[in-house]
Amino acid sequence: MNNLTFPKTVLVDTVSFCNLKCSMCSHKDTKRKKGRMEWSLFTKIIDEIASESPATRVWLVFFGEALILKNTNPSIFDMIKYAKSAGLKNVVLNSNGCLLDRESSQKLIAAGLDAIYIGIDAFCEETYNQLRVGGNYNQTVQNVLDLIEVKNEMKARKFRIHVQFVELAINKGQKDDFTQYWLSQGVDVKIRKELSWSGLVANKKQGDFNERRPCYWIMDTMSITDIGDVVTCAADPEGRFIAGNINSQSLKDVWQGKLGDLRKLHNDHEWEKLPFPCSECRDWLISYDDKVISNEKRGLKQKLSEVLKRARRA
Question: Which residues contact 310 (CB under 8 A, 6 or more apart)?
Fold first, then answer.
């Protein structure tokens, strides 16, 4: 794997609170103190990314629900606007969609957000209630449909909407229906395997250590908590390994420092020298397994198929 001089992806913990208690997520049991990122720290992070690598994909969320900040000052919309005005090319959000009203949809698009990923994980209310504890299935689905409508009204063609399905034992029979329904609504579908969050949530099968490969997230992603700590990776929400702190260091220094040391251990397959929780984590396999089913590509594929069928009949 290439050893990048700057991360391709940065997760920024704008807020570490969440409004749900999802069964497959460790957030409900987190011991890390919850809070909001200070504006001065946020702008420091954004300014360095804009200077070093404006094409880096920046998630304005790490382990919280960013739409909790929709009525704060500064708001999540202010954060998106700042990031885009600084020159960032790829600013995205991950959300459970429960707080996504029409006004928020309009503000997200107007602020310049490039994409949003909305976790639903079910195709019926009963399953949703078991997974997305505290959420409202019908309201969340309607929120996404409203977002699609707002996108069309605002003619925001470049804005990408993804709905996410974490594949679990309880919902795997709904994956095809979920995928077909949301593709029919004109959005993309992201399918992801269950994470253990580096051992914080029980997960039965997550890869054989004897076949271990370098973790994709370690190689290209930096995750920053609301107080500026840089943790192992996106699967270490508790920050059990701290590589540095952006209040006193630059992203580049941390990336090429302790995170660089981690990447070297992965590249050299020196698994026995890895620090905890990386040493015991089995989520490395899942880091390779995200799958996005693009509605756009699906449409092109269908059109090509129709053209070929007509050609055969001619």
Answer: none
Cα dihedral: 167, 287, 181, 308 (round 10): -130
| Residue whose token pair is 């370690």 | 218
Instruction: Tell me how far apart the alpha carbons of residues 275 and 291 are, in angstroms, rounded to a whole number.
Output: 29
pLDDT per position as a tens digit, 251-277: 999 999 999 999 999 999 999 999 999
> How many Å separate Cα 102 from the centre of its chain?
22
- The number of angstroms, rounded, from the C-alpha of 159 to the middle of its chain's C-alpha atoms is 16
Burial tier of 55 (Cβ tally within 10 Å: 0-12, 13-18, 19+) = exposed
Residues of the chain with pLDDT under 50: 1, 204, 300-312, 314
The residues facing 161 across adjacent strands are 116
Residue 305: its pLDDT value, please?
45
Question: Among the residues of the chain, which ranges form H helices?
Answer: 39-52, 76-85, 102-111, 125-131, 137-153, 175-184, 216-220, 251-256, 258-267, 295-313
Phi, psi of 79 (to 5 degrees): -65, -45
Q: Please name which of 201, 120, 197, 204 lies closest in space to residue 166, comparing C-alpha atoms.
A: 120
pLDDT tens-digit readout, 218-256: 999 999 999 999 999 888 889 999 999 999 999 999 999
